[in-house]
Amino acid sequence: MSGAESLFTWVYGPGVTRGGSVVGHHQPEALRPVLFLFYTLETIFNMFCMGYHISGFQAIELHLIEWDTVAIHYFYLVTFYFFMVVTLLQSVNICTGNTPAVVTEIWKSSGAAIVFILISLSTMWDAERQFYVFFFASEIGDKQSHEFVEDRPMHPIFYYLRGMSISSLTCGILYLLHATIMIDVKLTNDRNQGESKGTYMPIPLFVLGRFIHRKLSAYDWFREFCENEIIYL
User: Fold this and answer.
1) Nearest to 117 by CA among 171, 160, 161, 77
2) What's the pTM?
3) Which residues form the DUF7775 domain (predicted)?
4) Which residues, listed in sequence order, are joined to residue 135 by a DSSP beta bridge?
5) How far is residue 53's CA from residue 60's CA, in Å, rounded to a whole number?
6) How far is CA 18 from CA 3, 23, 198, in A?
7) Helices (H) and strands (E) in the chain, counts
8) With b meaning 16 or more CB within 10 Å and e meaning fewer, what string describes 15-31?
9) What is the rounded CA–CA span in Å between residue 102 and residue 54?
């Protein structure tokens, strides 16, 4: 088998036997390990988001904040937790040999990308809107108008909000890349229907690049992981 052919796997259509049948389509050989890599990275970044968010909550006194502001931050926390749990369950699902639905992957990843990017932007907007909160009130003395005043130290929550915004934006971009790859797989499958069965090849997928993917392919467990990724769309 040539190097180009080894990048793809022929997926037989539902209910079709393998005996010389051409009913099916090509899909990337490394689809399953690439999905698992996405799940792992998404889970890690979700943990970073939750860590920054919880640490920021511990640095402020909640009774000094209006209830609507607290409610939106609880919404952020629930969002981080929900997508982290869903991603962990998807990791278990794909490692146990079950076949994920590409349409579900597209909707979940697209929705997560939109939500996380909006959280990142709204976090920075909230930081600018409540900038007066970021200074330590205890450090502000009774200074005369003509006296020089040193720069006041920033409140710790500012750093947590900045970290949460950056991690949320990174996680949103990662979900967006995840959705883009799944959309490509879905569109390729749609082009392989009708008279053009099997003539359109999807983009080749590699785990951490072509070089590392080639090294991993030398191990039986990795090849077996790639061979079990049949996904019927």
Assistant:
1) 171
2) 0.67
3) 32-188
4) 154
5) 12
6) 23, 9, 15
7) 6, 2
8) eeeeeeeeebbbbbbbb
9) 33
Report whether 42 contacts 178 (CB < 8 A).
yes
Quick one: which H or E segment has residue 28? strand 24-28
Cα separation, 83 vs 217, whole angstroms: 31
Which token pair is 40?
């792992």
Two structure tokens written together for 137? 């009130």
Q: Which of 24, 22, 5 has the alpha carbon at shortest distance from 14? A: 24
Structure tokens at 91: 């990791």
Given pLDDT bands bounded at 50, 70 and 90, which one contains residue 156?
Answer: low
Q: Please report where in the chains the tokens 């949103």 appear, as a residue.
A: 172
Instruction: Enumerate residues 6+ apart whose C-beta is below 8 A from 154.
Output: 134, 135
CA–CA distance, 60 with 190 (Å, rounded to integer): 52
CB half-sphere exposure, 150, CA atoms < 13 A? 7
Tokens of residue 42, six digits:
């998404």
Residue 54 per-residue DSSP state: H
Q: Give the percent of the chain with pLDDT over 90.
A: 4
Tens-digit pLDDT profile for residues 72-111 = 778 888 888 898 888 888 888 777 776 667 788 888 889 9
What torsion, rounded to 10 degrees, do the Cα atoms 11, 206, 91, 44 define? Answer: -160
φ, ψ for residue 8 (rounded to 5)?
-130, 155
The letter for the amino acid at 10 is W
Residue 203 and residue 122: Cα distance in Å, rounded? Answer: 35
